Amino acid sequence: MVKNVVFETAIPDHDPGLYTTHGKFEPVDGWESFGPESRSQYDRDGFLVVRSAIPGEMITKALAELQTMCRADDPDCVNVAYEGPMRARIEGLLGTAVENADAEQLSAAIRAIPAEERAGFVRKFMGFTRTHKPLAVVANYRPLRNAIETLAGEPTRVFQAMALVKPPFGREKPWHQDHAYFDLPIESRICGVWIALGKVTPENGAMFMLRGGHTGGPIVHFKRRDWQICDTELAGKRPVALPMEPGDLVIFDAKIPHGTPKNTTNEQRWALQFHYVPRSVEKVAREQRLAIFGEDGKDVSC
Ligand SMILES: O=C(O)CCC(=O)C(=O)O
């Protein structure tokens, strides 16, 4: 059963200049090429792209599972988020704002939308490793877990699981640091992993990273198009786009600034994202996180 359904509100389009690519990055060609220099590269750049990291059969099964979840009446996960147009569609059926409807009315309205149409609005699923084995096996793929343990410097656990489906013409995920979303000690070495399940290009919403940006420490986040870094922070910076083939992935430090542009194509962009945290790390209070990443009490504006 889905515990939480989010109907996002539409956000304004971003300045295309926020996602221009500069320079090249050096990918690791398969796990056999992952070595001590990979850790130095990760520490220096804040990210590491690994080509052909997940076997093709695992990718095919994961993608099929996700496509089924997108069409299901009940995707059987903790959280599903639909993009802005779904809210408009549902409110048209309800004749009122989604906030005025109860769970039963919402569920009936969701089911009244043809599955194929509904699938085209899904942006994100969260919390599915207990219920969707073909996705859990990717998170636990041994060579990936070993690499994460090397980069984190100690054994880790999966802390968060997401499937990120950027729908046709789907919205930007503005620049941010993932650590700003986590109630975890600021010094902990959290690794994010973003895995391409289909071809990923700058046009359909590739990851853009600010190489080395993790070394600058936490940046204040503002509620604008999302909980994000101010666009002006990007002025004069040189982001790099990470195009990928299915089965490629990027491991990244949770403090590296990154974002994905709007999908300007009429096809979905399919990805999985997991975060791994050292087993020794324990949660901190939300206030502690907001004192670092929030704008309150700081003389900052955006
Ligand atoms: O996949 C995307 O479009 C954005 C992923 C991301 O950076 C995030 O959800 O933190």
Account of the protein in words:
With 302 residues, the protein is α+β, with helices and mostly antiparallel strands. It has a domain at 12-72 and 146-293: Jelly Rolls (Sandwich), CATH 2.60.120.620. It is built from eight helices and 15 strands. It has a nine-stranded mixed β-sheet. A four-stranded antiparallel β-sheet has the order 7-14-9-12, with no helix packed on it. It has a two-stranded antiparallel sheet with strand order 10-11. A hairpin with a 3-residue loop joins β10 (221-223) and β11 (227-229). α2 (56-71) packs across α6 (133-139). The chain is globular and about 55 Å long. The N and C termini lie far apart (39 Å). The model has no long low-confidence stretch (mean pLDDT 96). The structure holds 2-oxoglutaric acid (AKG).
The CATH architecture of one domain can be given as Sandwich
Look up the CATH topology of one domain.
Jelly Rolls
Helix content: 25-40%
Q: Give the biggest beta sheet.
A: 9 strands, mixed
The CATH superfamily of one domain is q2cbj1_9rhob like domain
Heterogens = 2-oxoglutaric acid
User: Which segments are poorly predicted (pLDDT under 50) over 5 or more consecutive residues?
Assistant: none
Distance between the termini: 39 Å
Strand fraction: 15-25%
Helix/strand structural class? alpha+beta
List the helices and strands in order. Answer: EEHEHEHHHEHHEEEEEEEEEEH
Total number of β-strand segments? 15
State the helix count: 8
Mean pLDDT: 96
Shape: globular
Rg measurement, Å: 19 Å
Name of the top-level CATH class of one domain:
Mainly Beta
Identify the strand order in the major beta sheet. Answer: 1-4-5-6-15-8-13-3-2
